[in-house]
Amino acid sequence: MKVYLMYKDHNFDFQQKLPWNEQILIQDLELNTLFNAMALGDKFLFEVAKKAVLSGLNSSLDTILYRQDILRDCFKNSFIVRNIYNIAVESIEREKKHYFGIFSKYPEYILDRSIEVLQMFMEMLKKLKTIADEHADKFESEGFTAFFTMLKEELDDEFFDSVQNHLKELKFDEGILISAELGKGNKGINYTLRKPKTKKQSWIERFFIPKTPIYSFQIHSRDESGARALSELKERGINLVANALAQSNDHILGFFNVLRTELAFYIGCLNLYEQLSQIGEPVCFPLPVASYERKSSFKGLYDVSLALTMKQKIVDNDLNADNKDLVIITGANQGGKSTFLRSIGLAQLMMQCGMFVPAEYFCANICDGLFTHYKRKEDATMKSGKLDEELSRMRDIVEHITPNSIVLFNESFAATNEREGSEIARQIICALLEKGIKIFFVTHLYEFAHSFCEKKMKNVIFLRAERQNDGKRTFKIIEGEPLQTSFGEDLYNRIFGTDKLTRC
Q: Whole-prediction pTM value?
């Protein structure tokens, strides 16, 4: 039985390796806020959300659209999807209660335990089959359609009747029929469990048909050695069937584990959607395009982590940066530039793993890798200077980056003077652009930003954090060329007052 709710042709690998910069992305984009909202305190949901979101950078365009269609079905049938998930969780938890303990080496105990577990699994599979029979027509996605079709075809009445008949026979109410051969030294070999004869005979046939001679013996109730030998003989006979039944249980358990894992991603999406709906924030299904295209346009994009933290609607932004390779963002201090940058990174990851995005409209090309280069606090150990540390992290990015990747820079290379920092940034950005890498760069380095502005490059767009005449920040990012000031005096006046600035 196959699930295939994350990919068309294979199951989701929960053990897959995540990007080398996993922890950096989590820190810079505040991804734990997103994962916690999806998990709602459930550790398993948290891990699945983390794996699915960060591994989305490997997703193809077809996989993204495949998951989007499944997620649309989840929105329309959330109660049914949660019910299926709960069945998978209950099956796994109930199986754990039937533990082997110290008797795991005894075939008879393995067989009895396997029969109990398989009976429980049949009960849970019947629940899935009932859901498929009653609700399959409510789902339209390719993934769910294939899933319910599989349940209907493989879990028909004949299957359940066959399993119940086999389980009834394996209880050996009428004794165990075992055949064996004599080997060297007259030792028994080739012990085989035989199916008992079930042919029904009339009383006339039973009376007149000649019977095969039977040779039998009985073990005395006090014959401990004989009883032990008989017990060993029985275990040899049922050993193979006990192991086969245990393997069948493992197969069904594996199915429920995969079902739980793959549905956990969509349950996390539902949890996130419900929280954003309560806040009043919109979401949409993004329009992904091939990696070689240059698309980056959106309307009403907001930082989902900030919205979840503040639990209220926050300022959103619009942008049309199609056919642009470089987006340079300047403007007033504390004007919303870093939040804007983070919203882009979050939306890109959410789109590529097949989720909805926090916007009214979002279209972007998929990328082969997402990298962040954010400013860090001063090294407390003083083992290296701040600029050295920035260049070291940049080297790590260069060693892993590939064409059609995205890099988010946040006030990078500002640890030295304006002229030197601008030249370092300019050379690095030019090299990345030559390799077909898309860049979003938040900076206060005017010389750096102005140098690109003077070139009038068609693949570069300039944005600026909006500031009103009275110094108020709107937290809107608008199109505009870089200015020579970041209006740091606004912050000084806000903290100390204008009169103190005058006296200085």
A: 0.86
